[in-house]
């Protein structure tokens, strides 16, 4: 019984440890760079440079552009 319990604990620790790198996906929804103040919404065919610029302008940024597939705003 103790061996089974030890295997279950080890299995759960391994699963928990492997899930940590995947949690960074949530943190990457807002990316800050030195050139751009904030990057957020992914750019697509329907959400392009014009829509990005418009959303950035509405959020009081002076410029917005699609950079590496993300809408990035600059103050």
UniProtKB/TrEMBL annotation:
It holds the Pfam family Defensin. It comes from the Eukaryota. Residues 1-19 form the signal peptide. Residues 37-75 form the Defensin-like domain. The keyword Disulfide bond applies. The keyword Disulfide bond applies. Keywords: Antimicrobial, Disulfide bond, Fungicide, Plant defense, Signal. Belongs to the DEFL family. This is Defensin-like protein 55. It comes from Camelina sativa. The gene is LOC109126597.
């Amino acid at each position: 019984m103790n061996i089974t319990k030890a295997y279950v604990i080890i299995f759960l620790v391994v699963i928990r440890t492997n899930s940590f790198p995947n949690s960074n996906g949530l943190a990457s929804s807002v990316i800050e760079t030195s050139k751009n103040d904030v990057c957020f919404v992914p750019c697509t065919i329907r959400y392009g440079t014009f829509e990005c610029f418009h959303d950035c302008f509405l959020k009081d940024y002076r410029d917005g552009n699609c950079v590496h597939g993300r809408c990035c705003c600059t103050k």
